[in-house]
Amino acid sequence: MKKDPRLTGQSALVTGANSGIGKGVALALGNEGANVAVNYVSRPDDAQAVVDEIKANGGNAIALAADVSNEAQVQEMFRKMIEAFGTIDILINNAGLQKDSSFQDMSLADWQLVLNVNLTGQFLCAREAVREFLRRGIVPERSKAAGKIICMSSVHEVIPWGGHVNYATSKGGVMMLMKSMAQELAPKKIRVNSIGPGAIQTPINKAAWDTPQALESLLTLIPYQRIGQPEDIGNLAAWLCSDEADYITGTTIFMDGGMTLYPGFSTNG
Ligand code: BGC
Hints:
With 269 residues, this protein is of the alpha/beta class. It is 41% helix and 14% strand. The protein has helices spanning 20-31, 44-56, 71-85, 108-136, 165-185, 212-219, 230-240, and strands spanning 11-14, 35-40, 60-65, 90-93, 147-152, 190-197, 252-255. The radius of gyration is 18 Å and the shape is globular.
């Protein structure tokens, strides 16, 4: 754990935390002294490994199974989280997936799966978190806010993405979900923000970085000339849900090495 942890005594739920960005965020929050609930839907061993790593670092964590797109499972997960830690202070709405195909071949099932997990899943988890934030209110020793939600969005909330129309649509939806919640809930001292990662080296985009040729092509989209790491996002998430960021609500912070800067225009146009 860090020497001056910023989230001591707070409890955080990170959805989809057994791999990729979710894992990076769970480890970072554990390092800041938060109790961390590591949600997963498959591969329980991977979730347990994240729990073990947080504990080995001097933190406190549990693993909780739930499909975020299933209302009953989400409610049961929150019940268990509150039973274990007493409450929830931070929700990291991270669970998400891709089911890519050309538009004309996109099945209704793949459209719905992506919207259900990436968008409805964020709604269901946020609603449960907000209910608990409102019930409990502000605890000044822990945080200035009554609760914090970070929605894991993507550069594709603003960059259209052919071949991934279901995914980009879900992230566009996450943007308005986040902003509308932020507007409604700010008077209750609940902060809601998004992180918009660019290309982060995780299993979801393995095909984009696992050969030198793929990586070279990916880097043409990244002015900063490196692929991001889960720790990059973890560091940002830890700060964004700390009181150092208390005046930030309703914003997407892009962390993308400049991917949203229209890199094609640096030598063209
Ligand atoms: C996607 C990745 C992609 C990145 C940048 C993310 O939201 O999940 O597959 O590499 O955006 O395009």
